Amino acid sequence: MLGVISKISGPVIEAKNMLGVKLNEVVRVGNAKLVGEVIRINKDVATIQVYEETSGLKPGEPVYSTGMPLSVELGPGLLGSIYDGIQRPLDVVSAKHGAFVPRGVEEPALDRKKKWHFKPVVKNGTKVKEGQIIGTVKETETIEHRIIVPLGVNGTIKGLKEGDYTVEDTIAEVNGKKITLMQKWPVKKPRPCIEKLTPAEPLITGQRIVDFLFPIPKGGTASIPGPFGSGKCITGETPVLVNNELKPIREVFKYAEKKGKKLVENENETLIELETPLTIQTFDGKTIKESIATHVYRGHTDRLIEIKTRSGRWVKLTPAHKLLKIDSELRVVETPAERLKEGDFILAPRKLSLGDSYKELKVEFE
User: Fold this and answer.
1) Is 24 domain-assigned?
2) CA 98 to CA 100: how far, in whole Å?
3) Angle CA(171)–CA(151)–CA(146) in degrees, nearest 5?
4) 139 or 302: whose pLDDT is higher?
5) Residue 132 lies in a domain
6) What is residue 59's three-state secondary structure?
7) Where are the transmembrane segments (predicted)?
8) What is the pLDDT of residues 66-85, one digit of tens each?
9) Which CATH number does the domain housing residue 320 bear?
10) What's the whole-model pTM score?
């Protein structure tokens, strides 16, 4: 343990008694040991960006130091894996914990048990330097993974031998420094290179909105951001307020299929771009206000949760759909449906502003 939480503001927290912590150091936050990164230091107070849902965190909970910057594991096994933003292997997490990532879960990014066949390309006794290729691993049928001498390591190589190794096994030594198939690298430190080539060839995705408005070069970088809760996880019969009228979301989707353009369509999900945006009501963290929807999304889930209130309201949701819960300290907290329990208080609007018009909305109760 290093410090304690003193302030919480969404995904950003402040912790005191943090003398000795370093900027960009990874810390574990709270009793759940959520992953966070130190982004500011002021005397003994550290500001920490938490990379997981902070619901339920309280002032006074511990903050643990790791002494390491946010890093990724580089080595055989990266290809074919699916990771979240802090390199947790989602396929492994799903197999062990289900479809949703538990808070604070830790899993190694690269498989520690799988063995890879390593072939040296230099001989024992050869003088090598940082960045030099010393061997290869056949990672896929078409891709050869090249094993290089780590940064800052120079000297005579010994103990090099062809064979099957895990990513943690020692494959050689250079001046007493053990070399493995895997290396850890800080994410905010650029990888060294002799020359950085300027991307000159476009990556044709086949999506006109990307290729025309947001072209991506081969070898470049792109991201598609989206806020928490941007996918509405509700069933087809759920009524939604669209263009100031209550309609089942299934009808809205059918309308979109006729009037919109399908950007994605497969057995698991469908994404449609609307020809004419729809007027909807959204919550901005303070109030419910009018906004527009430009896309409609339908996805597959293996289970649903039914939420019923004492007043008779009910709704069926996916486990990940977030509702606004009032916690014991009267704070409004976005909470996934699967984490709600009997007796929790949730927020529901009594009155909505629909511009200058007045419209009676019929909502069924049990």
Assistant:
1) yes
2) 6
3) 50
4) 139
5) yes
6) coil
7) none
8) 988 989 999 999 988 888 88
9) 2.170.16.10
10) 0.56
